[in-house]
User: Fold these one by one.
Assistant:
Number 1:
Amino acid sequence: MRIVFCGTPEFAVPSLRRLAAETNISVEAVVTQPDRPRGRGQHVSDSPVKEAAIEAGLHVYQPETIKSAPAQEFLQRVAPDAVVIIAYGQIVPARLLTIPRLGWINLHASLLPRYRGAAPIHWAIANGESVTGLTTMQIDAGMDTGPILLQRELEIGPDETAPELAARMSEMGAGLVVDSLWQLDRGEISPRPQDPQAACYAPILKKDDGRIEWLRTARQIYNRIRGFAPWPGAYTTFRGQTCHLWGRPERGAAAEGHMAPGEIVHSTKDVYVVCGEGTCLRLESVQLEGRKRILAREFANGARLVPGDHFV
């Protein structure tokens, strides 16, 4: 089977490596985003997929946009049996979808039609889901609306963060992609339409999503701390200054009736924040704007907390 692989971030790398290692699959080309400034220093660098492709000795093609005429000509010239597309980062125009015989096969990090969109892993955790999964589908002109090929369910660990879950799902997804290609080619699976009535969405993350609403319960806030790692994180304001927080619900701890959500309570050992419904979040670390991350106890000592201090 001759395929083209489209992808950009680390999440797509295990699938590319697995496909490149398959003796009966030929990866004719790897399509990835143009080199961009990345990281804190904003140095122009290769995408993780491009690095993996070069390591495997594969041909790399980096169109500025997949919608361009040269990109269409390239795909028509290669004429692959299938295009595997994973977190590529651009919308594929409908006119390209009919080029491969088996279509464009996408690996999506949710049990579609739930959590369509750009950030399914983050929102599943942030919303307190305990189960998620992977879906392979044939993409169509919609946003994650194409017919389903295979699905695999997995549990979300109670303390698992978005990067941890993404790493686990990316490895599991590699085998699902290979199985989908061969079963589709042999006619062993029939693409089945999604139920639009069961759909929910996982939009691209915005900075405002990370602002903590202290009326939420400690568990709900903890889920968002896990789900919005590493960006935008979970942040609040202390004495007019933005700060990022890390912590977890404190079992058995309950705020006194007169305490308002966001109020900080500390002892010689621990620092707590009052949350909604009388629950408490035990702070583990704090990062004030422009400073390094420190332990919650160090924050309390440095801030010289007094009764009534609170986050807003």
Number 2:
Amino acid sequence: MAPDGQTIAPNVYDAEPIPEAARAEIDRLLRSGDLFRYTAPEGAPVALLESEFAALLGSRYALAVSSCSAALFLSLKALDLPRDARVLIPAFTFAAVPSAVVHADCVPVLVEVGDNYRVDMADFAAKLPTAHAVMISHMRGHTSDMDAIMALCDAAGVPVIEDAAHSLGTTWHGRNIGTIGRVGCFSFQSYKLVNAGEGGIMVTDDPEIAARAIIMSGAYEQNWKKHPGLQNSFGHWQNKLPLYNLRMQNLSAAVIRPQLPLVADRVAKGLANHDYVADRLNQTSCLHVPPALAPESRAPDSIQFNLTGDWTDAQALGFQAAAKARGVSVQVFGLSEGNARAFWNWQFLGEPPHLPQTRAMLMRACDVRLPARLTRAELDYIADALMDAAKDAQNA
């Protein structure tokens, strides 16, 4: 709030603060130097986090690792896929997802995404017969049709990994996203619902996947004994799998654990913020926020919307600039230089595939952060700035 009482452009880039409850544990760890997850015989912060997160999601097993990218990679390796296995991924995702597929010695196969940011099921069904696995990114928390996806994959015997980096707290028919496929992977990077700076976690009900992932994450020698419930599987796989050393360390877990009880409140506030701004933007003819699918209850901390009608690239860039001049940072995914969410920038994959539907969407799809902490006045400021910027750009 400015001194004259006027609302100023809110800072949407500060991460969620670390709860005071974390400080005593952090101080204890720093005094002891006990940062390695396997030093203590039991009760290490990382082990406690895994137990608490599995209970939160309703999963049998959880493995905390260094990042969500690490969780995605380990999930693919734990599936024991053949080299050059074809893995379907949405063409609208973050570059870390195809990177994880490449690191796992597999081949990403990009699937078209519609203007509602969800997988195009016709293209998915057409490409599934040659796939060995599917990695569904619920990009920016937008859930694709998991009923249709799971029906097709179950019938074909193709395992599904959920990239739920943006979807902690989202449900589908009341079931937690990340628990529908064979494995679910979550992020604790600073701009996610739970902030640890970096970090990730994977959940599964499959004991063999859990055992293989735990060993490959870096549970060397007898350290796997500190993971409960998988002793027979561990005994079978010990020394037969490579170690990638992608473990989480105790300080990260100490930061994350006190935030888990705050997830439900953050989800409720984030959804309320999103829907309030969405209702305002949808009152205009040139901005459109696609609705959630019927079975989906979302947990957003950002908002995506499309520039609708006859926008030129110059006008879309003008919209970005006009919003920024008002203190609101917008990125048009396909027009932001080097954007890691635009598939044609993933040069490590070679020549970009022909995906006209996804390309057209990305050229007019916009992204704005909406943290749960924002006030109604700050939300109004953002909505007003976006609508005024759109008018300026179209009239230029």
